Backbone:
């Protein structure tokens, strides 16, 4: 079983469902339903839905205070981690942005030595914090400076179209009914 944790101040639920759809094309995949992203919710999914036939498990990891993501990582033991975006969410319990950043990076701290962190480098908070890590990192976003990025973005009444560029020069055209740069960024995260 390969486990993947996804956290962020926003975008984690959408990214989780997009990634689950992509993975299910090739693997028996379980994704935490709805916004099940607390220790109780994730534990319930593991106990009630996880089967020996599953090859991939994608778990959304929410947080309202320091240590929440670390606790979820102890349950899930992720091999891969995605951080979607970091912003001033739940300041009533986190008190400041630095605590939020550190809590979201508990996911990267929990990855094994051969793990992989997939990080939204469009987000300055993530990009700046990532510089302190030596584990394997993959950057994504909408800038051509990152490992995976979307370009040639166009919108119309049928949704969005764009090209995702991958390391090594590979490119693939995508279309989606979803609108908004944030949704395109979530798709790029799942592809990365």
Residues:
């Amino acid at each position: 079983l390969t486990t993947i944790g996804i956290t962020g101040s926003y975008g984690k639920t959408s990214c989780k469902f997009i990634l689950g759809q992509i993975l299910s094309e090739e693997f028996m995949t379980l994704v935490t339903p709805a916004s099940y992203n607390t220790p109780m919710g994730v534990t319930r999914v593991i106990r009630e839905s996880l089967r020996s036939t599953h090859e991939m498990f994608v778990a959304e990891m929410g947080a309202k205070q320091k240590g929440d993501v670390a606790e979820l990582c102890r349950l899930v033991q992720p091999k891969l981690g995605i951080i979607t975006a970091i912003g001033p969410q739940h300041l009533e319990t986190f008190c400041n942005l630095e605590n939020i950043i550190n809590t979201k990076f508990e996911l990267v701290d929990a990855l094994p030595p051969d793990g992989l962190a997939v990080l939204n480098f469009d987000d300055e908070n993530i990009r700046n914090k990532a510089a302190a890590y030596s584990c394997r990192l993959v950057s994504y976003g909408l800038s051509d400076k990152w490992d995976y990025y979307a370009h040639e973005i166009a919108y119309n009444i049928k949704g969005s179209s764009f090209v995702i560029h991958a390391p090594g020069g590979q490119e693939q055209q995508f279309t989606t009914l979803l609108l908004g740069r944030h949704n395109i960024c979530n798709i790029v995260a799942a592809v990365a």
